[in-house]
Design brief:
The complex is a heterotetramer, with two copies of chain A (135 residues) and two copies of chain C (243 residues). Chain A is an alpha+beta fold and 135 residues long. Helix content of chain A is 36%, strand content 21%. Chain A folds into two domains: 75 residues, 2-Layer Sandwich (hypothetical protein PF0899 fold), CATH 3.30.2320; 56 residues, no CATH class. In chain A, helix 1 crosses helix 2. Chain C has a single domain, classed as P-loop containing nucleotide triphosphate hydrolases (Rossmann fold), CATH 3.40.50.300. Chain C has nine helices and twelve strands. In chain C, helix 1 crosses helix 5 and helix 2 crosses helix 9. Classes of the chains: A alpha+beta (135), C alpha/beta (243). Chains in contact: A-C, A-D, B-C, B-D, C-D. Chains C and D meet through helix 3, helix 5, helix 6 and helix 7 of C and helix 3, helix 5, helix 6 and helix 7 of D. One nickel (II) ion binds next to loops of chain A. One magnesium ion sits at the interface of chains C and D.
Chain lengths: 135, 135, 243, 243
Amino acid sequence: MHEWAIAMSVVSSVEKWSMEKNLGVKKVFLSIPSLSMLEVEVLIEAFNTIKKESKIRDAELEVRVRDQNFKCRSCGNVFTMKDIRDQLDPILRDYGEENPLHIVPSLITAFAKCPKCGSHDFDVDSSIRVEGIEV
Amino acid sequence: MHEWAIAMSVVSSVEKWSMEKNLGVKKVFLSIPSLSMLEVEVLIEAFNTIKKESKIRDAELEVRVRDQNFKCRSCGNVFTMKDIRDQLDPILRDYGEENPLHIVPSLITAFAKCPKCGSHDFDVDSSIRVEGIEV
Amino acid sequence: MNPILELARERLKGKRVLAVMSAKGGVGKSTIASLIALNFGERQKTALIDLDIYGNSVLKLFGIQKLHEVSKEGIEPFRVGNLSIFSVGGLVGDHYIVLPGKEEGNVLESLLGLANLREETVVIDTPPGMGEELLTLKRVANPEVILVTLPSKLSVMVVEQMLEYLLESKLKVEWIVANMCYLNTPFGPIYPFGKPEFVEKLGVEKGIKVEYLPVDPELEDFSGRIWDYSGLLKEEIRKILDE
Amino acid sequence: MNPILELARERLKGKRVLAVMSAKGGVGKSTIASLIALNFGERQKTALIDLDIYGNSVLKLFGIQKLHEVSKEGIEPFRVGNLSIFSVGGLVGDHYIVLPGKEEGNVLESLLGLANLREETVVIDTPPGMGEELLTLKRVANPEVILVTLPSKLSVMVVEQMLEYLLESKLKVEWIVANMCYLNTPFGPIYPFGKPEFVEKLGVEKGIKVEYLPVDPELEDFSGRIWDYSGLLKEEIRKILDE
Ligand SMILES: Nc1ncnc2c1ncn2[C@@H]1O[C@H](COP(=O)(O)OP(=O)(O)O)[C@@H](O)[C@H]1O
Ligand SMILES: Nc1ncnc2c1ncn2[C@@H]1O[C@H](COP(=O)(O)OP(=O)(O)O)[C@@H](O)[C@H]1O
Ligand SMILES: [Mg+2]
Ligand SMILES: [Mg+2]
Ligand SMILES: [Mg+2]
Ligand SMILES: [Mg+2]
Ligand code: NI
Ligand code: NI
Ligand SMILES: [Zn+2]
Ligand SMILES: [Zn+2]
């Protein structure tokens, strides 16, 4: 649901950029972590609605969903979403769709552990970022 | 001076690695931040002395001194050691050779500011790491 | 480009942002932030944002155990009278939070960026230390600061270092609050953490007004329903804000 | 490969490591860690390591204002009787420290890795929160834990979440210390932070012994020379350790 708030943040930061640089925007490349379970179609729909009231009416949104590679800082083990699937399922069950990881993917270390050593201490790459703008 | 302690840490971690993998070590590539003002010759001298008592007697140490690129998280400005030279000089003057940045380069944000916006909030890459081992 | 950070900045832009800070823990930041917000709330809609990821004390003081609703607008606040409350604790419930330092900034940027913040007055509760949370707040806004300490020498020394940072960073420090200075008994005051000589001196040196608050053992009875509290501390804070 | 981390692990391996923890600030961690180390120091050489980057309270309690000497062996401790004290504050002096969360781990790995640590018994003072400092300590060692709280409901709720984490992480929690439970006056006790009912319940639930400590207003007089203190708190801690 809060895909709309995120789309708004993208439109308004790209709009600001476009006005500062005095450049028209054709395409925006947004990168999101798969961990966040954000719905890409909703993001695009929201972006297309919100941009109409902005100065980047012609911009198109392309979303890249990044798969996570977690690296344990305690034992060095590298693992992926698949390896902790059993730890993620209960989160969906307990919190539903608007769960903590959906809203703030960085919270993953509070809920999941390194499958090898059990540590909550692993590197995550969970940011939502605009990786490129085509003008 | 504490170059010796660092050399010891390198010898003992590489030795451990070599024993675990059951591989001889020809060369160790160590990367250090220029910020730390560590003396490369002392590091190598210490390494060559300490390795004699270890299982990696034939290893050679190659040290790469990384130049820092600081990125301000407040205004986005990217700057280097040169741009904050005037902020670093007083540290050397006040603390001498064994100054905080020499011992713990990560402490840089406590002493220096982004030359553009004055923020202490910038990204540093200050770790000391073994970047490669030649067997 | 970090759109969530940009949005956070926009949400706070032009508003009155008051942050209750102390590098020292347990000095009463959350209590005082809550009482200040409640005082403001008597006259206008006020937001209270909790940036202490691990303490979530604001929720505990207000007895809030629900989860934040999430809408198209983002994270919807908990409403208590005129107050709108936001906290990471409202996203996770009673599960513990443990985080690498690197992630703390992302978590707080998300809270601040996604909060559906409509109020013009914003009170911010902060964690102890001078780490990622402080830097994140600074990245997003330039708050007026209320600096809290105990009267103890130890606490004042820690807070003095923070004050140095705040002043160098050109943040406006409104007052220093010396909390838990004395405990009134029928037989005269007791000073559980020493007399407030060090904080007095600090205030004079830096030209910042110091306000002295008592220990109020009654406060504990209102843990979980702090809006009901109308004792000593509340009255003293009212006086300070009315000045 | 991170050689400093490896060295830190080696320096602590096989030693008795006791960490005084609390996700809540200002509950007396530094005071209690110092008094425990002093108690051990009466019988054997003991190291006291301060992992609270922003508080450096151990140095302040011991009145240490010098800088660590650095030798070929690394960072040389401050020596107070049988105690060897290490703190980041001993590297920077009275300058403030402000750090992005990402750097906190590097700073503490350096302190632990470079410390010329010869003692077999190591007491560790920790900062509040459950962030990078806690994870760094966990990366380096598996300490026995002494968990400190105030009796207040708020503090106990915060500490309960930390306890959950500690137990899930299979750390051994020796005792829970409920600090500042009562203040004795000639006219009977005062309970400045409420009666210790919540912490008592927590102890029973988790099967962990709870120790109750008083507020001692005399303590403040020994700030800066805590080794000279021999009052109530010291005596209570002696009793606990002798059990
Ligand atoms: N003036 C006061 N009188 C009595 N208790 C207080 C007072 N101020 C704070 N407390 C109590 O002290 C503890 C720490 O306060 P808190 O607001 O959580 O501090 P912080 O946010 O700085 O960690 C809480 O249990 C709180 O109820
Ligand atoms: N039992 C006690 N009686 C009186 N004062 C205490 C007691 N325990 C701690 N203090 C004081 O309370 C303040 C916080 O204690 P401190 O050890 O710094 O806590 P923490 O390390 O958990 O932040 C200090 O000023 C300290 O002197
Ligand atoms: Mg605190
Ligand atoms: Mg608090
Ligand atoms: Mg922290
Ligand atoms: Mg402390
Ligand atoms: Ni959503
Ligand atoms: Ni040196
Ligand atoms: Zn692991
Ligand atoms: Zn900058």
